[in-house]
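[audit] Reproducing an earlier prediction to check determinism. Same input, same settings, fresh worker. If the tokens differ from the archived copy the diff job will pick it up downstream; this log only records the rerun itself.
[audit] input (60 residues):
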Amino acid sequence: MLIDELYETCISEYLRVNNGENDVYFNTNDAGIISNCGFVEKGCVDDCFIGFRISEFQWL
């Protein structure tokens, strides 16, 4: 995916959840580029992250 597509997916799918029912995560790396976006349902105890994490990024 292109970085713009990742930002759009983050905004439209993962950041629109109910904040009262979920812990929402949005982080950037040292360069200010998105590194993860998603949420975890409050009370969930194991492997509940829904979203994405970017472990490697390369400019084309």
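[audit] rerun output stored. Observation attached for the diff report: The CA atoms of residues 4 and 10 lie 10 Å apart.
[audit] end
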